[in-house]
Amino acid sequence: MTDYEMILTERRGDVLGITLNRPERLNAAPPQMFDEIRDALDALGDARAVLLLGAGRGFCSGADVSASAARDGEPGDATHKALSDHYHPTIQAIADLPVPVVSAVQGAAAGIGCSLALAADFCIAGESAYFLQAFVNIGLVADGGASWMLPRLIGRGRAMEMLLLGERIKAERALEWGLAYRLVPNDVLENEAWMFADRLARGPTVAMGLMRQQVAYGMSHSLAETMEREAENQRAARRTADATEGGAAFLQKRDAEFKGA
Length: 261
What we know:
- The protein contains eleven helices and nine strands.
- It is α/β, with parallel strands linked by helices.
- The chain has two domains: 195 residues, 2-enoyl-CoA Hydratase, Chain A, domain 1 (Alpha-Beta Complex); 48 residues.
- Helix 1 runs parallel beside helix 3, helix 5 packs across helix 6 and helix 9 runs antiparallel to helix 10.
- It is globular, with a radius of gyration of 19 Å.
């Protein structure tokens, strides 16, 4: 795999693992880190699932734009540039992926780190995990797509609670609200996340990718438009080898062996 300064990449079977690797800073993310994540996603190759992890005690404690802000002058312009050119394109790249995505969170998932964790299709949380939108505490506004994600994940009321109060949502509450898919002990988090990502990677990942896209499409389009998109995607899915295999396995009463094609 490619060598990076701020992330580690690992391929296990059909799963691409991407680990944020600044544990001494709780994986606070400079723009470069998100550029590296996007580069790793661009090099997805034949991987059939992606797993996002954080090294050390935290997933990601938020953006680290201090260096670029000092270099680029006016803080507002520097932050706008960092979001527009680095952080937001990476969140969008995750949304556009043709394969399922899992995040594994222990400790802090704050600010842009919260958005990164929740951009996954499934978030598996360790017992120490917490999710935080602390922007209001420093006079800033949510970014990283949080204003779009949170109301859709947990409803407007809970989204406003996170955004306007700026308090930690701990793991158990995150599970109750639907921010996290599963809650596990910290010491088994990484293993559980890899196994779950592998389970997804062994599925009909072409169809899964199409479903990711049509769910996002349906959030901003009418029922009629969404059903039309479903029909188009069903036509594409029906033409895959996985659909043929799935139908044969059903008739033969056996487990399907999907190849992601």
